[in-house]
Amino acid sequence: MNKNKKSVSIKIPELKCVEFRVESDRFNYGRFTLSPLRKGQANTIGSAIRRVLLGEIEGTCITRAKFNNISNEYSAIIGIEESIHEILMNLKEIVLQSDAYGIREGSIYVVGPKEVTAGDIILPPSVRIIDTTQHIASINKPIILDISLQIEKGRGYIIQNPGYIIQNPNNSNYKDEFFSIDAAFAPVQNVNYSIHSYWSENETQEILFLEIWTNGALAPKEALYEASRNLIDFFLPFLNAKEENRDGLPISHTSTDTKGIDFNQMYIDQLNFSTRIYNCLKKANINTVSDLLNYSGEDLMKIKHLGKQSVKEILELIRNIGIDSPGNTV
């Protein structure tokens, strides 16, 4: 027996939340560790997850505003301390949360004197305000402030043209014009990561430290989950890529025989659903293909924000991969 033979132990990396703070409604902080990792892995993971956290997490914000009888964003309203431009900048900072896609309508209708805050915004049920105390305007005279708002869900940061106005296609009158607002969708404000190396079991191992700051629309742990899911979605095409032989012809390994497959271990991440469908299914606590097969087409239609076209896409995809379930017939 060779006494000098090295024993290699394989440990699965474990994610831990070592610190979590809610300093205000719009300031959440989380610190996480991932270990043990082999040399070089921490930087690979840290760099990728940071980019996704900052640029790929969806958020909701006000993207357009219409003021009654106002056509210039640098106009001033007698009786209101802020200019139209300043009010637009304040609306840009309002932190919202929503599961709904597409344009949603909101409004502000208040009579002064009054300090107008985010709590005065009238919103549809699908949209929620994170901090109702956020300042919008100060009215010091008995006048009416009437603003129509458009709210959207998206990702990243979209810069609008200064003073850009969107006209109502049905009416060119300036009373129906919307001012565009720079859209800061990203709920993650900042991300830092650092790496600690140490010697263990005859090799260099690493610990990844990850710090995440959010605006309150998502908790840092929720943002990390969303980023991880996005990374999985990015790499699914590589897993599904066709293998080619020496002549460049595809070699198909696809089989429609699903006998023996444990659908409890097959997750919906693997089915290439759109982000919208995936989010709806996850919120309905559908995590595996086994969970999904328990739903008929009628059951799926009852899931919030899951429309007829989305249900049709789900059932068609299931049939295409060779899964036959009596409950999922059209």
Topology:
Blueprint: E1 14-24, E2 27-38, H1 41-55, E3 58-67, H2 84-92, E4 96-98, E5 104-111, E6 114-117, E7 127-129, E8 135-139, E9 144-155, E10 157-158, E11 165-166, E12 178-180, E13 183-184, E14 188-200, E15 203-214, H3 220-239, E16 243-244, E17 250-251, H4 275-283, H5 289-293, H6 297-301, H7 308-320
Antiparallel strand pairs: 1-2, 2-15, 3-9, 3-12, 4-7, 5-9, 6-8, 10-13, 11-12, 14-15, 16-17
In short:
The protein is of the alpha+beta class and 330 residues long.
Look up the CATH topology of the largest domain. RNA Polymerase Alpha Subunit, Chain A, domain 2
The helix count comes to 7
Major beta sheet summary: 5 strands, antiparallel
Proportion of residues in helical segments? 10-25%
Counted beta strands? 17
Question: How would you describe this protein?
Answer:
It is a single chain. It is built from 7 helices and 17 strands. The protein has helices at 41-55, 84-92, 220-239, 275-283, 289-293, 297-301, 308-320, and strands at residues 14-24, 27-38, 58-67, 96-98, 104-111, 114-117, 127-129, 135-139, 144-155, 157-158, 165-166, 178-180, 183-184, 188-200, 203-214, 243-244, 250-251. It is globular. It has 330 residues and is α+β, with helices and mostly antiparallel strands. 25% of the residues are buried. Strands 5-9-3-12-11 form a 5-stranded antiparallel β-sheet, covered by helices on one side. A 4-stranded antiparallel β-sheet has the order 1-2-15-14. It has 3 domains: 14-57 and 188-239, 2-Layer Sandwich (Gyrase A, domain 2), CATH 3.30.1360.10; 59-184, RNA Polymerase Alpha Subunit, Chain A, domain 2, CATH 2.170.120; 263-328, Orthogonal Bundle (DNA polymerase, domain 1), CATH 1.10.150. β14 (188-200) and β15 form a beta hairpin.
